[in-house]
Design brief:
single chain; 229 residues; mainly beta; Thrombin, subunit H; 2 domains; 6-stranded antiparallel β-barrel; 15 strands; 49% strand
Length: 229
């Protein structure tokens, strides 16, 4: 079975099923195939069946049969890899989309080990281990974490709850996320001599809806609101 970093639940899968839409690129491997890695993409999806084009790799194409078990992976840049097992439910004479996969019951998520973070400067408040600590600046952001600059000195492994507002097309959206300090460094000193520290924080409790909100905000600000970059 697939190994993933988070506990799979049906609420998360309901959100993730919405990612399975036409145009999504997939990597497909028949169960038991030691090489796998066939490239394909979704042509149609109706909530019950996911129709894909011909799976191919360098040494040839893959011919699937009804009932065959396969593992599927897809990636969302800046977020994570998503994985599920399913079976071929239908095969039809259509070179555009010959194979139908049964919609999965669960979809696992495996966070990217080095999720891309984009520069975005936002005012932030934060608490440390449940106690109010102070204010700072979010200086970069991804669906998996953020960079925080502040005066407070924190140790790697410290739990930090960060509150900020994400600019979006319909106004600022407040978020509050618990995270853990993964990296710490000296950021610099102000003209008045105050020492500032830079921390890399990884979210510990962000669900798929929050990750989608962060990704949407980052993409919108890249294209419509360069003032925050």
């Amino acid at each position: 079975m697939l190994e993933v970093d988070d506990v799979i639940d049906h609420n998360a899968t309901a959100v993730r099923l919405r990612y399975l839409e036409a145009g999504l690129e997939l990597r497909l491997s028949p169960l038991g195939d030691p090489i796998g890695g066939y490239a394909t993409s979704i042509v149609e999806a109706d909530g019950r069946t996911i129709w894909i084009d011909l799976p191919i790799r360098r040494d040839g194409m893959l011919h699937l049969r009804v009932g065959q078990l396969v593992s599927v992976r897809f990636d969302r840049p800046g977020d994570a890899a998503y994985l599920f097992d399913t079976a071929v439910s239908e095969v039809r004479d259509d070179d555009r989309a010959p194979f139908g996969l049964a919609a999965p019951l669960t979809i696992g998520r495996r966070a990217h080990r080095s999720a891309a973070r984009l520069p975005m400067v936002l005012d932030a408040q934060f608490d440390v281990d449940g106690d109010s600590a102070g204010i700072g600046k979010v200086v970069d952001l991804s669906a998996g974490g953020l960079g925080l600059v502040c005066e407070r000195e924190l140790a790697v492994g410290t739990t930090v709850t960060v509150r900020c507002a994400l600019p979006g097309p319909d106004g600022d959206v407040p978020i509050e996320q618990t995270s853990v300090v993964r990296a710490a460094s000296l950021y610099g000193r102000t003209p008045g001599g105050t020492t500032l520290y830079h921390y890399g924080l990884a979210f510990t409790d962000a669900d798929d809806e929050v990750r989608e909100l962060v990704l949407s905000s980052v993409i919108w600000n890249l294209t419509h609101n360069p003032s925050v970059l």
